[in-house]
Amino acid sequence: MILETRHAIDEILSRQPLFRGLSANELAQISAGSREFRVGKNEMLFHKGDAPEGMHVVVMGQIKLSLPSAQGTEKVVHMCGPGHTFGEAVVFLERPYPVNAQATADSIVLLVSRRVLVDSLDSNSMLCRKMLASLSTRLHELLGDMETCMLRGSVQRVVCFLIQSEPPGDEPGFSLSLPVSKQTIASRLNLAPETFSRVLGELSEKGLIQVRGRTITVPDRRALREFTA
């Protein structure tokens, strides 16, 4: 991990959803206790069991949070893109990280120290509300993932993933480029990679999707939404 100092941290913070609306003095206080890192693809930020240093903010790229197993496999818990934060809950609880964090693309990440974060929350109610909203959103996402993985079959999980990934618009069809490998998406859906590929093949045979590498085209989004396995 390379410490990166070419950017003004307070300027970067001002563009992140969590810190928008803070005064220049408040941003300066937080930036004084923050560090900026550039991490390469596949590089680890931290491992499960490491002591937390602070909260991470993704400025650019993508970070994968996953649970490792004794067999060497992993369960992907969350994919964090630009503007996302992670690690705040364990900072407040003062417990070790419960997951691994690994860059899936070249990324820039800010690390906000626990001391500065707590001091800022003590003095700023707006930041507290934003933090609560962020944690609440994460909780709802985890509950949605649990529902997808435990209460739906393999085909339903993949269809649900495609529907959730569709871009906004009124066009009858759409295309999406998978942001990570099929293996990572399969883990997120609690599926074996071969099962995920098999389901994509079945949906292709039914004419609901077209697959070319990491690009998936849905000719009729309405038909996909109405499809039940």
Short description, anyone?
By secondary structure, the chain is of the alpha+beta class.
* Fourth CATH level, the homologous superfamily of the largest domain: Jelly Rolls
Mean pLDDT, rounded to whole units?
84
Q: How far do the termini sit from each other?
A: 45 Å
What is the level 1 CATH name of the largest domain?
Answer: Mainly Beta
Q: Judging from the principal axes of the Cα atoms, what is the shape?
A: globular
Gross CATH architecture of the largest domain? Sandwich
Q: From N to C, what is the helix and strand string? A: EHHEEEEEEHEEHHHEHHEEH
Count of spatially separate domains: 2
> What structural class do helix, strand and pairing data support?
alpha+beta
In spatial order, strands of the major sheet run 1-2-9-4-7
Question: What does this protein look like?
Answer:
This protein is an alpha+beta fold and 229 residues long. The chain folds into two domains: 2-150, Jelly Rolls (Sandwich), CATH 2.60.120.10; 153-226, Winged helix-like DNA-binding domain superfamily/Winged helix DNA-binding domain (Arc Repressor Mutant, subunit A), CATH 1.10.10. Helices cover 42% and strands 24% of the residues. The chain is built from nine helices and twelve strands. The protein has helices at 9-14, 24-32, 88-93, 114-123, 125-151, 154-165, 182-188, 193-205, 221-226; strands spanning 2-3, 34-39, 44-46, 54-60, 63-68, 74-80, 85-86, 100-103, 107-113, 174-177, 210-212, 215-218. The strands form three sheets. It has a five-stranded antiparallel β-sheet. The protein has a four-stranded antiparallel β-sheet with strand order 3-8-5-6. Strand 5 (63-68) and strand 6 form a beta hairpin. The protein starts with a strand and ends with a helix. The mean pLDDT is 84.
